[in-house]
Amino acid sequence: MTKKAFRPDVDAPEYKGAYVPYDIIKEGAIAVLVVFILTAALALVFSSPDEKAITIKTWSNADAVDFAQTAGDELAGTSAVAGYGAPYNSNGTSQHWGFLSPEKWVGVHIPINTSQDFVIDPLSAQPAQPALTAALNQWKSASSTVQTAWADAFNKAEPNLTFVNNRVIIPTKAAGPIPVLLNYETQMARSGALDQALVTQNGFYTTNYTKPLLFLSDGTYFAGLANKQHLLGSQWGMMNETGQYPGQAWLWLYTFWYQVKPWSTSASGDFLVWGTMMILTALMVLVPFIPGLRSIPRKIKIYRIIWREHYTQ
Amino acid sequence: MAQGWGLGALINLDHYGHYIQWHVIQISVGNLIVMVLMVATFVAALLAPFPGRRNRKGAK
Amino acid sequence: MSTDIDRQWTSRIRHNVVDKLPPDKLLPDTQPAYVASWIYVFGVTTIAALGVVILTGIILALDGPQWWHSSSLGHFVNSMHLWSVEIFFFAMVVHLWGKFSMAAWRGGRSLTWVTGAVTFMASILAGFTGYVSQTNFDSQWIATQAKDGINSTGGGAFFNVLNLGQMLMWHIVLLPLAAVVLTALHVIMVRVKGVVPPFEDATTEVSA
What we know:
The structure holds three protein chains of three kinds. Chain A is mostly helical. Chain A has helices spanning 24-46, 56-62, 64-76, 102-106, 114-124, 130-141, 144-157, 178-191, 193-199, 210-218, 220-228, 252-257, 269-285, 296-300, 302-306, 308-312, and strands at residues 3-5, 19-21, 162-164, 167-169. The radius of gyration of chain A is 29 Å and the shape is elongated. Chain C is mainly α. Chain C is globular, with a radius of gyration of 21 Å. The chains are: A mainly alpha, B alpha+beta, C mainly alpha. Strand 2 (19-21) of chain A pairs antiparallel with strand 1 of chain C.
């Protein structure tokens, strides 16, 4: 048997003291009972939040202007999702740190063409109406240069877009078929038909809400609701819950980075925050192997309180 | 709200929350209560006397 | 001959298991006298809360993911599911602080610490997938926010938080399985090695 130096933060002394009776099953049973009763009591007293999901229908009826502007941006290819980059399309600059850009390396896996998927395809599936069919044909047969010119004209007039007498009014004559298309799109949305069209593109059954959620996230209405509930990223929203309920408080450190520079202002903020959290997580998981870190408990001496009976003997 | 079992909340937390702002820190009162309780529970667990162990001689 | 029998895979595994974890270690009836603090109850509290989380989750599963919106019994079970999760994380964090204070990785217990920390991470993911599976405003908002973080790592291409079916499957099959298996490993390691003994100032040598 060889002897080697005792490392107090790695090795444990051999315990030669007394043993006392311990009923592990009874302890477990009491714990289950206590937690069950406490859970039932908290559920009875506080219940749980359930804010109804919003739909494209509720959005377009509550704020038709925001909806029509967003739909126009999707068609023009100027929305956030249209310029997102991977994994949805190749239009954006991927988040990166130096040469590290896993988002770019992985590439497009969930292809989203906002113009086609959010506007043209749903409208094309509508029952034929002469004005709509003509506008769709005009859009589809135009060259991309012409489409871009229409989109530019729309984007210029967009801030002055109004919704009067159930009509979307865009103060420009240079936007080609865009005003007609947005009128039909808005009517479709307000009737609830667009909600269906966005989820049924995969066929009869669906469990995938990627498209309607991305569409919703491009408008300001959705974020406005979240803002009232303090759910925005800039409001430490990740750890908040609707109403007054506690939320995912354990995400406090993750959401903290989004509040301070350089994470809060970087265009690659998400990637930097994830990188930071991965390093910190690795440090936590590997504490037993990291000199210095693993000595903290011996130095802060809280163990003296925990084992005070043992030390007084 | 659903009907039928009369299991509604005794205290309704479905109003807009209250938030505490201190420099960069912003936290909902709900989360703050949970965190304060956590620290308080930890300290109480350290300091509270543990019953039934004193003067008991080893069983082994 | 007994040697043939001893060489069987079955015999070898059984001997190994029984050597490492004899019944009186798996279900002990005594423990070291230094285990005398309330801080020791938070591990078992975490496991108890996990049990209530799973039980209420099973009840929610019986009638499907949207039942709780329309039934007040369903809503109550959902409330229990939420509050047991809050207790679960609450107890787990206090347990973590306690075990850190005791440097409970000492004496060949580092893997116990590692499995515990990994269980914490798996639980955060399990909780998150639950939040995005609620099929209400909260889940809509959390999903659209969380996509950016996960996309930035490249993971969003495979773990699409906007895909309800995928998130629900992770929440009710894959991550509970991971949490339970990790917890079981963690507890078995604690039982094999026993709870960590106190720091002794006098000790300078250890037999290796």
